């Protein structure tokens, strides 16, 4: 049976804390939600180890994908009601694009793995590439459902995620500097972390969005709502996404998986401690089926097993991750980076393997990125439509946005075991080393031996 754009006899709804109701009106959307590949997203946290910092952040990528779908559905409704196309070249909204936009929105994060970005870093996977594989592979349920629309529909949906779809309006709904993806995760992450930094007036932004030949722009009367969104994004990155404890848990998780991969080369194939579901990734020979078997629970089960492993480093890192024993960290810059080597030498002398118990980590983000012709890759500008119909780029008329445009915000940190800052639990013979180590840190910064922050 070919569904094409067939509507359900009666729309289905999902109760949602961000959007109240998420409305499903098309057969194909409901069938996609019910596929095993999409249901897997229930078992993958949206923010990975961030729940170790903000305990409410237990929400999943499943909920986020539904939210992105719902915002995209609302955008399509606004466009169809207020800006319906009358001719092929008028730059307005052609509602025949609705279904491809909705499917791309729903499926845009389908390829995320367990503890998403950490897993990608270790095993050199790319969630967008895997999303496209899931959509286009004839072996997946998602592909089977998409082909009920048309044989070439999976490729169309994949091209939206790949930014090659010919209609920029559809692409920018899902991926731009003010898109359904960002708007949902800011509101959703703010809600679940308990942080209010990410709140902004979504209703107002949707009201001032409008299509044009080059994609999507915003009526200039809504500039302040867009400004508020930009600043909310800045605050969420600085206060939530770049939180040093969350980054510390990511460091431990990274080193834990690296140690497990190193030890896996020495395990016999019949060993009960062999992590069989991870071996294809340790050996760099995994397929899509191997990938789709993984979720946060699979990794956590292995971590529990490794707590009793004979390897002391693997067992200790597993305990630190599961029992929330984060590393401590201190800020550094290029002027004092050379002091890290001296600090690592001390850590080594008191018995820690610096390969697994220290790391440097930087987190930077551009709150807003204006077009720069010198850049090889740049993000889509936010364009405001003036009363005469001309377009102006946001940062050229907003002093608030101009102040943060192109400025990378974040910091660089050196991570190390918390024990190095403790006095009571130190072994007496190591006490001079601990005191020496602590002399390098003041007010969360690395300092020189004169007590000066470089």
Description:
- 46% of the residues lie in helices and 12% in strands.
- The longest helix has 22 residues, at 61-82.
- It is built from 22 helices and eleven strands.
- It has helices spanning 27-33, 36-39, 61-82, 98-107, 116-123, 127-136, 141-146, 153-161, 168-174, 180-193, 202-208, 223-241, 244-264, 279-282, 288-292, 296-306, 312-322, 339-349, 354-357, 394-397, 399-404, 431-438, and strands spanning 7-16, 20-26, 209-212, 215-219, 328-332, 359-365, 383-385, 391-393, 409-416, 441-442, 445-446.
- The model has no long low-confidence stretch (mean pLDDT 91).
- It has a four-stranded mixed sheet with strand order 3-4-7-8.
- By secondary structure, the chain is of the alpha+beta class.
Helices and strands in order:
Layout: E1 7-16, E2 20-26, H1 27-33, H2 36-39, H3 61-82, H4 98-107, H5 116-123, H6 127-136, H7 141-146, H8 153-161, H9 168-174, H10 180-193, H11 202-208, E3 209-212, E4 215-219, H12 223-241, H13 244-264, H14 279-282, H15 288-292, H16 296-306, H17 312-322, E5 328-332, H18 339-349, H19 354-357, E6 359-365, E7 383-385, E8 391-393, H20 394-397, H21 399-404, E9 409-416, H22 431-438, E10 441-442, E11 445-446
Parallel strand pairs: 4-7
Antiparallel strand pairs: 1-2, 3-4, 5-9, 6-9, 7-8, 10-11
Helix pairs in contact: 1-4, 3-4, 3-10, 4-8, 4-9, 5-13, 6-8, 10-12, 13-17, 16-17, 18-22
């Amino acid at each position: 049976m070919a569904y094409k754009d067939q509507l359900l006899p009666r729309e289905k709804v999902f109760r949602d804390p961000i959007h109240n109701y998420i409305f499903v009106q098309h057969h194909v959307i409901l069938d996609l939600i019910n596929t095993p590949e999409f249901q897997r997203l229930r078992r993958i946290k949206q923010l990975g180890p961030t729940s170790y910092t903000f305990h409410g952040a237990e929400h999943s990528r499943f909920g986020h994908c539904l939210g992105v779908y719902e915002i995209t559905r609302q955008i399509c409704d606004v466009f169809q009601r207020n800006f319906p196309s009358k001719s092929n070249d008028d730059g307005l909204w052609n509602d025949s694009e609705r279904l491809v936009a909705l499917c791309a929105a729903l499926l845009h994060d389908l390829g995320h793995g367990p503890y998403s970005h950490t897993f990608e870093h270790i095993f050199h996977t790319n969630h967008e590439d895997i999303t496209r594989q899931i959509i286009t592979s004839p072996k997946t349920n998602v592909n089977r459902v998409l082909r009920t629309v048309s044989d070439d529909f999976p490729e169309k949906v994949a091209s939206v995620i790949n930014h090659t779809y010919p209609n920029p309006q559809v692409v920018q709904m899902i991926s731009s500097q003010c898109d359904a993806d960002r708007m949902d995760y800011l509101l959703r992450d703010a809600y679940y972390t308990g942080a209010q930094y990410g709140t902004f007036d979504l209703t107002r932004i949707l009201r001032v969005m409008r299509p044009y030949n080059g994609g999507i722009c915003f009526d200039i009367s809504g500039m302040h709502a867009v400004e508020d969104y930009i600043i909310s994004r800045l605050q969420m990155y600085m206060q939530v996404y770049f939180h040093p404890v969350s980054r510390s848990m990511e460091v431990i998780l990274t080193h834990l998986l690296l140690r497990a991969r190193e030890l896996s080369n020495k395990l016999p194939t019949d060993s009960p401690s062999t992590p069989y579901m991870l071996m294809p990734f340790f050996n760099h020979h995994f397929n899509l089926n191997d990938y789709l078997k993984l979720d946060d629970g699979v990794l956590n089960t292995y971590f529990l097993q490794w707590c009793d492993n004979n390897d002391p480093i693997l067992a200790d890192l597993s305990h630190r991750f599961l029992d929330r024993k984060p590393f401590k960290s201190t800020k550094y810059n290029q002027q004092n980076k050379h002091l890290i080597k001296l600090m690592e030498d001390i850590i080594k002398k008191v018995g820690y393997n610096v390969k697994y118990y220290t790391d440097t980590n930087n987190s930077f983000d551009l709150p807003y990125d204006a077009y720069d012709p010198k850049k090889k890759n740049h993000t889509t500008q936010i364009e405001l439509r003036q009363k005469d119909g001309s377009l102006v780029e946001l940062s050229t008329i907003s002093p608030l946005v101009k102040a943060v445009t192109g400025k990378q915000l974040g910091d660089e940190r050196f991570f190390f075991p918390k024990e190095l800052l403790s006095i009571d639990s130190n072994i007496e013979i190591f006490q001079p080393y601990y005191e020496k180590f602590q002399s390098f840190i003041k007010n969360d910064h690395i300092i020189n031996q004169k007590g000066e922050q470089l």
